[in-house]
Structure formats: structure tokens, C-alpha cells
Design a protein that fits this description.
By secondary structure, the protein is an alpha+beta fold. The chain has 12 helices and 10 strands. The strands form 2 sheets. The chain has an 8-stranded antiparallel β-barrel. β3 and β4 form a beta hairpin. α2 crosses α3. The protein is globular. It starts with 5 loop residues before the first helix and ends in an 8-residue tail after the last strand.
Length: 331
Amino acid sequence: MLVLDDVDRGLIHALQVNARAPFTLIAEVLGSSTQTVVRRYRRLYAQAGLRVVTLPTPRSAGVHQWFVRLTAATRSAHDIAVALARRPDTSWVRLASGGTEIVAIIHTPRSGPDAHALLLRDIPRTAGITSVSAHYLLHTYLGGPTAWRGRVNVLDEDQQARVHAERDAAGTGGRTAALDEEPYLLTDADRVLLGALREDARVSYADLAAATGTTASTAARRLAELRARGALFFDVDVDPALVGVTVSALLWMRISPAHLDTVAVALAGHEELAVVAATTGPTNLVAHALCRDAEALHTYLTRRLTMEAITHIETAPVLRTYKAAATLRTP
């Protein structure tokens, strides 16, 4: 297995801080050469599943998100997971709980005759599925635009500021949209731009101009505006095993509503968690734990996840990830 060194880890952290930071700047911050950083990026891309992708925020895309849990026969679970992963309206498709449970995030339009066709018609009719539960995602405390801390602990504050400064110089001005602002809704032209960035957030402005029928300067300005409006975010995907993670688990928790926000904010600060989100359903908070090994997960569950407000925890080990935020991991 590929072993990461400080340059590899620093590169991943720099991309998390600023996904479109020039390789020349990253090399300068890391004290390396541009050729070395480019070579490491290509190696991580080929051998570690490193992908830097662009995704619209649900508010701007006008979609709802659902955590869906499907129970299926072991013999059919793999094929169902693969089919879900290949759909454009899904993300984070995983096989859990001994290979009989599929967990996915499904993105549905807010309205329209087919808004919930996948949930109400397609999935229930799929052969091999024995039960379905859907949990509407109400609020994300950790995940999406907020990086998992387990892979962003290499650059010091000064190095991060230098990488981030280039982002502000590109036109965002450091402004991000507030949650209480009226969300910006993507236009058709915006969706074309995002489509060109979806699978590679580092595509050149010249290529963006060709894909959108504009100029490079127009594409750069429009991308900066969308970032400033909070209409999109960048996600860095890499094999967790390369940063020491061998055990992954979904934690479905029940918390009294009066304490939900306090508990969720606290959990969002835990280094072991990559996702913390409030949902509907019999459990109202879901988290994704990434740990060094089974003993580390046990320690986390028994010594850190001990808040009295948490009245129930269901732990579902993740056996395989078929799709990350946008990247397929199927053979």
C-alpha cells in the first residue's frame, strides 16, 4: 500500500484549504518544488483515489437530501449498491451492518410529479430489498464544506493562511453566505459551469471557458461569485486507509430535541467524526466515525460519546464505500 509522507499529507491539506490553489503556491508553502508536488498529485490520483470535486450546496441547487437505509439480501446487496452509486442523484453509497444494509444520501427535487420517485416507487419495487427507511437531512453540523480534521492536521496556521489568501485574491473577498440569507438559486448557466467542475475542481479556466462558451476571465469571475455566494463547495476525497483509518462506522443516535443542537455542536468538534447531521426519524442525529482500529472505535464510544442527552446509539460498521461525494469506487 502507498505510504504517505509529509509532502503528500501537506498537499492533501492544502487542497482542502483551497481546492484550486496553484501547484506553484502549494510547493512554495510546503518548501518543495512544483515538479515534485505535481508528481505527488498525479500519484495520489492514480493510487490513492485522490479526487477534488465541486458540488452545489443543496440550498442553491434546490434539492432535499435524504439518508436512506435499505435492508437487502446479502446476495443482492452489492448489485443494488452499485446501481445506486451510478445514479447522478446519489452520494455516499455504503454497504454496512454485515453486508445486508445499504446506506446512501439521495438528492430529490423540492417539488414536481417525480420529486420523490426514487424513494416512493423505484426503490420499493427493487427486487431483493426487504425494508426501507428514509431520514430527511435537516441540518449538517460537520461534513460537506467542512473537512474531516483527521486529514487536515499538517499545515500550521501561517501555511493555511498563505494558501487561503490566494483564494481571496481570486475574487471571493473572504465572504461566505450566511445561513439566514436567502439562498442563491443556480441558473442554467451556473449548472453548466458546475457540470464542468464536478469531477475535477482543478480544471483550467481555459477548459471552463470552452465548456461554457465564455471567456476564461468570465469563467473565473463567475466561479468566484458562486463561491462567495455559498452556492458551491469543494470536496477532497482520498482513501481513508492511507491516513491510518481501518474502521469506519455510522452512528445513529437519539437525543432529546432540547439538547440536540448542543450535542451536535460538541460532536462536530470530535476528530474521530467526519459527518454530524440532524435528521428526522426515530434517531435524530447521525455521525460517521473514522478510527484507527476497532479498539479505537470502542474507546471513542465508551469514553468520549458519553453525554447523558444521548439516550440511544446504533452502531453500523461500514464494510465498503461504493461512492463518495461524487466519485465512484466501484470496480
